[in-house]
Amino acid sequence: ALLGGCSGGDGDDADKDPLPPPVQRGAEYEKRVIRGWLLALGRDDYVGAADYFAVGAIIDQGDPFRLPSRAAARIFNASLPCRADLAGVKDEPGPKSLASFRLREGPGGPCSGIVKVRFTIREGKFTEWRQLPEEPEGLEPTGPVV
Fold first, then answer.
1. Beta strand 125-131 pairing with 53-60
2. Strand boundaries in the chain, DSSP class E
3. Which of 21, 50, 127, 143 could lock onto 74 through a cystine, CB 3.0 to 4.6 A?
């Protein structure tokens, strides 16, 4: 999403107060990338959702595999039975982050619970997408993350 603003002044303020450079790492950056992916899924835009995955990205929902092409990324995104809302993102050592999602109804029917996915994001694309095993705390999801 692009943010724009207007200073309401005569235009000189733009030279005095430049915008900070875009964030390239950290929880805010990861949140923006993950939210963009979730928005594409919410619109059933599987081509757009596939754009968030690097060719060769590792997908792991218990049986890891690589996405060999954009077409494979599109098929993966279209196969997700649930939709989700981002509950939080936590930075981890290195280029990884851990996102928590609240599942909700999707194309596969009713879904509920909380799931966690460990992401590696490089240049706005997921290079690793690893869903963690369910935690035995009673918050058991009924399907894959999204």
1. parallel
2. 53-60, 65-66, 83-91, 96-104, 114-122, 125-131
3. 50
